[in-house]
Amino acid sequence: MTLNQLLKQNQSFYGASVIAGEDCLDREVKSVMVLEAADIENWGKPGQLLLTSFYALQILDAENSRKFFINMQKIGICGIVLKLGRLISDIPPYIMDYCNYYHIPLITVPKTTQYETMILSIMEPLMRQMLRKQSMFSSSLRAVRSSRSMTHR
Questions:
Q1: What angle in degrees, to the nearest 10, is found between the helix axes of 62-75 and 93-101?
Q2: DSSP calls for 74-110
Q3: In a 3-state reduction of DSSP, which class is residue 2?
Q4: Which of 52, 85, 88, 112 shows the greatest Cβ crowding within 10 Å of its Cβ?
Q5: Which residues are bridge partners to 50 per DSSP?
Q6: Distance of alpha carbon 68 from its chain centroid, rounded?
Q7: pLDDT in tens, 99-139
Q8: Which positions ≥6 away from 137 have C-beta within 8 Å?
Q9: What is the model's pTM?
């Protein structure tokens, strides 16, 4: 599922707005994580969508913020979802600048949007997709084993 599909087809993202990085909405969402600490190089994964209220980022100065965004780009983070109205009402201009410069989509959601709802709405289709792949693999493996046992008779 791409960010664009997520935003268009997922009711938990009702009221979401793309603020920066609009040119990268074709990125695949592979997982989701709540951003609690800025040491993303220790836990971030390619295709991960970050959910935040800005708590972990508010303590970073300009240089450490830049490093954070550089690390996100290197890792391949697919985007950031920022809950406005919880800690901040307005997005600091440098955050939008970094998102545009490093090609990281920045999506805002209303403060009433629940993390749990967003996480489940992302993980459910990903889990279904994984189960389909596992089922196809198991079927293929059974077919191979069956054909081997028939040729060895």
A1: 30
A2: HHT--EEEEETTTS-SS--HHHHHHHHHTT--EEEE-
A3: strand
A4: 52
A5: 33, 80
A6: 16
A7: 999 999 999 999 899 999 999 989 887 888 777 767 666 66
A8: none
A9: 0.81
